[in-house]
Design goal:
about 180 residues; alpha/beta; five-stranded mixed beta sheet; about 35% helix; about 10% strand; globular
């Protein structure tokens, strides 16, 4: 019998949305989130992602083969919860655009170091972009160890202010996040 180890704050976003919504807009197994996976030994430890979206400054270890890696580093000197800043919005836009890329292999594992801050902001933006209610977005984030309700509420306000003018193809992002059964599209 082999044990499965999971990164910090690991979870299936689609499955978690089912805690608050009658029907999750994201199928279980499609969008995964958590912390760094340096000590993970197999792709099963991450839910068999087709793509890893790395939000850390540093590169991911290369020990998990056969998985596409997309690196959208956040500038560490920027407060990522301050989504009213142009540079934070630009970074979020790049991360969301990478999720909407047509040839992206799914499922996607989104991560930073702890799976809370940078990951929390990007997941919040993705969920808000597909019209998940802000209260549900905040509650999904609050499942993270060390979650800060004031910080995520501030981030959500800035994201909601920015989304109408963001240069993001929300329909394509919605299709990417909501289609399929968690396997590659």
């Amino acid at each position: 019998m082999s044990a499965t180890f999971r990164p910090a704050n690991y979870r299936d976003v689609g499955e978690m949305l089912g805690l608050w919504l009658d029907v999750s807009p994201i199928p279980a197994g499609r969008l995964l989130r958590g912390g760094r996976f340096d000590l993970m030994t197999t792709a099963s430890d991450l839910g068999f992602p087709g793509t890893i979206l790395n939000l850390r400054r540093g590169a991911d270890p290369g020990h998990l083969t056969g998985i596409k890696v997309v690196h959208v580093a956040a500038e560490d000197e920027i407060e990522n919860y301050d989504t009213r800043q142009r540079r934070v919005r630009s970074w979020i836009g790049k991360a969301l655009s990478s999720l909407a890329a047509p040839a992206l292999p799914w499922p996607v594992y989104v991560h930073c170091t702890s799976g809370r801050d940078r990951t929390g902001v990007v997941i919040a933006a993705a969920l808000l972009a597909i019209d998940v209610p802000p209260q549900v977005v905040a509650e999904e984030y609050m499942l993270s160890d060390g979650a800060d309700r004031i910080a995520i509420d501030r981030a959500i306000e800035g994201i909601l202010e920015w989304l109408p003018s963001a240069e993001i193809d929300r329909a394509t992002l919605r299709g990417a996040l909501t289609s399929g059964s968690g396997g590659s599209s």
